[in-house]
């Protein structure tokens, strides 16, 4: 009996070690370098495991000694989160009806590394679903980023909130005198604003002006909503302006995303 229990403990320990190894490897693959075949394989395995772990948990502990008040609070919080996810899923399906000009793929967020919370997120769709690097990721609230890494069963999305010198988006600002283009080049985490630089000081910008993707550079399609101008700051030389743009998207609460694969013909 003792030997059997000891053997079971060893098996459990081995499973935990393997499980943790997958997750450590999964979290470590966050750099911009190209993944090797081995890394891609292990990330696929980790994404499948993660997808299983992230299945909605709807049952409570049936322990008779558990505190009923605490259980009620837990259940209430679970219901709130489930309602939020259902609403986001409904929005994603509704979005499909409006994006008639594109082939789209809906995906579930299966991982967000706390150390890179505003940098990347991982979804449960990949090459097998026709996804490729640089495809655009959106929600009903607008642009969230683009795919930077793809494996067979998962994809990593670089968010527009990532403070990365390579993460620049050409945008268009609709003003009373017409459109002007600039570059989305940063994120103000404290105020939850994306920053737009390079706006000519002579261009009249007002709070509330709408910002969308410009389509220049071919990276993002034209016209994807980003947000509205909330702050306007002139540089010390008076040559250009930096805009703070308020987004509708809550980047702390993303469960489902829509990937624009390609324009339909």
Description:
The chain is elongated, with a radius of gyration of 22 Å. Helix 1 packs across helix 2. It has 265 residues and is an alpha+beta fold. It has a domain at 169-246: Rod shape-determining protein MreC, domain 2 (Thrombin, subunit H), CATH 2.40.10.350. 28% of the residues are buried. The chain has helices at 2-28, 37-53, 68-98, and strands spanning 102-111, 120-123, 136-139, 142-150, 155-159, 169-175, 178-188, 193-200, 210-213, 225-234, 240-246, 256-263. It has three helices and twelve strands, in the order H-H-H-E-E-E-E-E-E-E-E-E-E-E-E. The strands form two sheets. The protein has a six-stranded antiparallel β-barrel with strand order 1-2-5-4-3-12.
Q: What is the secondary structure topology, with strand pairs?
A:
Blueprint lengths: L1 H27 L8 H17 L14 H31 L3 E10 L8 E4 L12 E4 L2 E9 L4 E5 L9 E7 L2 E11 L4 E8 L9 E4 L11 E10 L5 E7 L9 E8 L2
Antiparallel strand pairs: 1-2, 1-12, 2-5, 3-4, 3-12, 4-5, 6-7, 6-9, 7-8, 8-11, 9-10, 10-11
């Amino acid at each position: 009996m003792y030997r059997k229990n000891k053997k079971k403990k060893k098996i459990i320990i081995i499973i935990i070690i393997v499980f943790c190894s997958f997750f450590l490897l999964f979290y470590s693959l966050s750099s911009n370098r190209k993944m090797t075949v081995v890394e891609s394989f292990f990330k696929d395995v980790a994404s499948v495991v993660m997808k299983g772990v992230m299945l909605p948990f709807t049952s409570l502990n049936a322990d008779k000694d558990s505190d009923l008040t605490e259980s009620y609070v837990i259940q209430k919080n679970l219901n709130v989160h489930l309602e939020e996810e259902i609403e986001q899923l409904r929005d994603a399906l509704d979005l499909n009806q409006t994006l008639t000009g594109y082939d789209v793929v809906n995906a579930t967020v299966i991982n967000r590394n706390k150390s890179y919370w505003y940098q990347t997120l991982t979804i449960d769709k990949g090459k097998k679903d026709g996804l490729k690097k640089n495809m655009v990721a959106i929600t009903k609230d607008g642009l969230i980023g683009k795919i930077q890494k793809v494996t067979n069963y998962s994809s990593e999305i670089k968010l527009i909130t990532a403070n990365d010198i390579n993460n620049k988006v050409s945008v268009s600002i609709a003003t009373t005198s017409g459109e002007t283009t600039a570059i989305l080049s940063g994120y103000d985490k404290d105020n939850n604003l994306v920053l737009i630089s390079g706006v000519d000081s002579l261009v009249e910008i007002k709070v509330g002006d709408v910002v969308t993707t410009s389509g220049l550079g071919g990276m993002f399609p034209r016209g994807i909503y980003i947000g509205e101008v909330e702050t306007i700051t002139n540089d010390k030389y008076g040559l250009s302006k930096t805009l703070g743009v308020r987004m509708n998207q809550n980047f702390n609460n993303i469960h489902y995303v829509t990937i624009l694969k390609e324009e339909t013909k």
